[in-house]
Specification:
mainly alpha
Length: 247
């Protein structure tokens, strides 16, 4: 436990000094929130809707932070350590692949959590946004989204040979999920054929689940997003640990 805490403390300091995740995982969602707030304010999300556009968008804004950390930040950090032979030095220490990946995993969970709290505080104070559903349901949907997305990044970081390979894989995953999962373009405005295709993304399932939980809407076939996200988490985490390469 002491080794885990020490590694976590050092890695978190290095990560914050880098500033990439501070900008893209913390500041970017807030900037988008403020822009949407000035554009739409307390306007209803649709004709006859009793919730605002901002309240409908909270899940998508949370996903921006999760996507940045899970699909870009985490895999690139681990791959960079491998390329710079830092992992090779870890290999002769008591640090195991599972411990190293768990530390990096936890760092990006913390980023996502800070982003969530910031979004709720700013949107609540500035535009009166409040949770209309169950805190338990929303927290559960958020956590599943975080775990499934970060597990994909952990898998990429665990098997990518170098930073270049990790960057290519991360971009191939990051941009389609960011654009088509509902984090930027609303899921509802996409053609039905596209909706069926992107429904396989864990991020898509997570955003829809978070939106319904936040607004207090009934979720039909709620078992599907849970099984999709849990399945992705277990499979990707297992591959990341089993196929982990020190160099």
């Amino acid at each position: 436990m002491k080794a885990f805490c020490t590694l976590l403390k050092n890695e978190l300091k290095l990560n914050i000094r880098n500033m990439n995740m501070v900008i893209f995982a913390l500041l970017l969602p807030l900037v988008v929130l403020v822009i949407l707030g000035f554009l739409y304010g307390t306007s209803p999300a649709a004709d006859g809707a009793d919730y605002t556009f901002l309240e409908q968008s909270i899940g998508a804004l949370c996903a921006i932070s999760v996507c940045a950390g899970g699909l870009m930040g985490l895999p690139l950090v681990v791959a960079e350590y491998r390329e710079r032979k830092i992992l090779k030095r870890f290999q002769v220490t008591p640090i195991s692949p599972g411990m190293l990946l768990a530390v990096e995993f936890l760092i990006y969970v913390l980023y996502a959590l800070v982003s969530l709290i910031s979004l709720l505080l700013v949107s609540g104070l500035a535009w009166g946004v409040h949770l209309r559903g169950s805190w338990v349901s929303f927290a559960g949907s958020w956590l599943l989204t975080v775990l499934s997305t970060l597990s994909i990044g952990m898998m990429v970081g665990g098997i990518a040979k170098n930073t270049k390979n990790a960057s290519v894989i991360a971009c191939v995953l990051y941009f389609p999920m960011l654009i088509f999962s509902g984090a930027t373009l609303p899921f509802e405005v996409m053609p039905e054929s596209v909706q069926k295709i992107i429904s396989v993304f864990p991020m898509t399932q997570g955003i829809q689940f978070m939106k319904s939980a936040f607004l207090g809407l009934s979720v039909e076939h709620f078992a599907l997003p849970i099984f999709v996200m849990l399945g992705v988490t277990l499979v990707c985490s297992g591959i990341a640990v089993k196929c982990f390469k020190w160099e």
